[in-house]
Amino acid sequence: MILSANRNAQVPKSVGFYDVQAKEALHLVVSLGTFIVLDKYLKNAFSDHNIRFPSALFGMFFLFLLLSTLSFINSGAANKVEVFFSPANLFIQRWLPLFYVPSLVVAPLAVKGIPAIEGAKIGAILVGGWMGTLLVAGYTTVQVRKLVNTELLPVDPVPKAAPFTSTERFSWIFVMLLSFGIAVRYPTALGPVAVTAAPFLLAATVVGYLMGTSLPEKATNVFHPVLAIVLSAELGAYALGIATGKGFEATLGEYLTKSTGSPGAGDILNGFLGPVILSFAFSMYRQRKVGTGCNCYRQQHDLPPVLYL
Q1: What transmembrane ranges does the database entry give (predicted)?
Q2: What are the sequence ranges of the domains in the chain?
C-alpha cells in the first residue's frame, strides 16, 4: 500500500538551468522593450505637439516622481516596479559606455576642416574649462557641507553587472570577423552599404569595449575603456575601407548616418540613449534617502530649501 501510494504521488519537477535562463532572457526583453516603447511614445508625443523639451528627460523625471509617490503610498508597489525594470537597468549599466561613443568615433570627420591652430585653441578651452568646472564644483561642495554640517548617509548597495566572460569576447570576435567578410564580399547583402557594414562596425565597437574592460585596473587608469572603444571602431572602419577600396573617411561616414532608411552602427547605439536616460530615474530613486536626510536636517534647523536643490 505504501509503495503504491508513493508511485501515485506527484513528484515536483525541478526547474532546469535553461528554463531559468529563458525566463531571465524574457524578463530582460520585456523590461528593456518597455523602456524602448516608452521612449518612442514620448518622442512621438512631443513631436506631434511641437514640444522642444527633451522627451527622455521628461520621462526620467516622470518615472522618478512615480516611484517616489508609490514609495510613499505603498513601498511594496514601488519595489515591484523596481524589480520589473531591474534586468533592463543592469543591461544598460553593463553596456553604458557604448551608448555615448558614436560622436567620438566620427570626431575625425568633424575636425577635418579645422586648422591645427584653431584646433589647439579649442582643445585648450575644453581642457581648461573642464578643469575649472571640477575645481569650482569640488570647492562648492566642500563649502556647502561645512555650512549646513550635514551627515552623509550610507548608500544602499546597488547590484553590480556581471563581468564579461571569455565566451562573450570570443563570440563577438567571431561575429566581427564573419560580418567583415560579408561586408567585403557582399556589400549590399542587407540593402544599403551602411546597413551591411553596420554589424561589423558594431561588433568592432563592442570588441573594443570588451578588450578595454579586460585590461588590468592600473592600465585602465591610463588607457580608459572608452578610448579602447573609439580606437577599435576607427581601426575597424579603416580596415573595412581598405578592403572595400572606399577609404577610411567614406567608411567612417557610414558609422553614423543619422538616417532612418540606412542606419549605421552608431545610429543603432544612439537609439538606446533615450532608454538610458529613462533608466537614470531608478538611480535617482535609489539615492532619494540622501535627499530625505538633508530635508530632515533643513526642517530641524529652519534652513532655506534652495541649498538642497
Answers
A1: 54-74, 94-111, 123-142, 193-211, 223-243
A2: 18-100+277-308, 102-153+162-271
Q: What are phi and psi of 152, to 5 degrees?
A: -70, 130
**Cα 12 to Cα 116: distance, rounded to the nearest angstrom:** 73
Closest of 91, 87, 103, 88 to residue 205, by C-alpha: 103
pLDDT above 80 (res 200) = yes
Least confidently predicted of 65-74, 79-88, 108-117, 255-264: 108-117
The answer to whether 194 touches 262, Cβ cutoff 8 Å, is: yes
Question: pTM for the complete prediction?
Answer: 0.77
Report d(CA 283, CA 189) in Å as an integer.
41
Render pLDDT for 159-194 as a digit per residue (tens, 0 to 9).
666 788 899 999 999 999 999 999 999 999 999 999
Q: From the centroid of its chain, how far is CA 163? A: 15
pLDDT bin (cut points 50, 70, 90) of residue 300 is very low
Q: Are 256 and 271 in contact (CB under 8 A)?
A: no
